[in-house]
Amino acid sequence: MLTLRRCLICLVICVVVALSPHKARADEIVVFAAASLKEAMDEISAGFAKETGHSAIISLAGSSALARQIQQGAPADIFISANAAWMDVLEKDGLIDPASRFDLLNNSLVLVAHGRDADPVDIAPGMDLAGILGDGRLAMALVDAVPAGIYGKAALQSLGIWEQVAPKVAQADNVRAALALVSAGEAPMGIVYMTDAIADENVSVAGTFPAGTHPPIVYPAAAVAESDNPLTARFLEYLKGAAARAAFQSRGFAVVAE
């Protein structure tokens, strides 16, 4: 009798637990994204959470720094690079899923100046950028590692003025750090993406580098090979959707992905 009573009690408890309302844990996805994507990715993260109930944790830095973190085993699910080269490195190392890779965005490269009313600069071969800078510095992302810096150096070399400008370059860890130097007036000019210039009210575009002066600016996206997150494919598809497209385009990006 006692045993039967205990069995009945256990049965009641099981039924109550099964019928009790409970809140499912919202899964998270970790996205490593180039620093120049900050505002767009903030909006996309919020939109993804609203649509799916799942959180997208966005980690922003220079593409080179993010790629090295992935090489060292950082727990990322998705990588969005500001150039193809760093994605190529990870693909060669077997660290991204090549089947998931696609080109997401294009951007353009600009010369920015501190303040909202900077005089325009004619960007052409042989231009005297060193003379325009005077005693000031040209803020750039790391010219041998970070995509914006690599593109910028290539453009200055193409124009035949890198050797004159190089001693005046103030290098920063990523393109947003370079932008911050110009925004704060610590450097009178800098080379950043058009989308960065749009994001900062304390700088103005003095000129746009012709597309032929540097390699095409392409942002590829891909799943990290070690990720087994079931949300990875869903987030990559979300990046191709209308909401993400609008977020990118409103910040000046050209969307490549269909």
Give a description of the structure:
This protein has 258 residues and is of the alpha/beta class. The chain has eleven helices and eleven strands. It has helices spanning 2-19, 38-52, 63-71, 84-92, 129-133, 147-158, 162-165, 175-183, 194-199, 232-239, 242-250; strands at 28-34, 55-61, 78-80, 102-106, 109-114, 138-141, 169-172, 189-193, 203-208, 218-223, 254-255. It has a six-stranded mixed sheet. Helix 2 (38-52) links the parallel strand 1 (28-34) and strand 2. The protein starts with a helix and ends with a strand. The relative contact order is 0.20.
CATH superfamily of the largest domain: Periplasmic binding protein-like II
Low-confidence stretches: 1-26
Percent strand equals 15-25%
Q: What is the mean predicted local confidence, pLDDT?
A: 90
CA-based shape: globular
Number of helices: 11
CATH class of the largest domain: Alpha Beta
Judging by the overall fold, what is the CATH architecture of the largest domain? 3-Layer(aba) Sandwich
Radius of gyration: 24 Å
The overall number of domains is: 2
Gap between N and C termini? 69 Å
The biggest sheet, with number of strands, parallel, antiparallel or mixed sense and barrel status, is: 6 strands, mixed
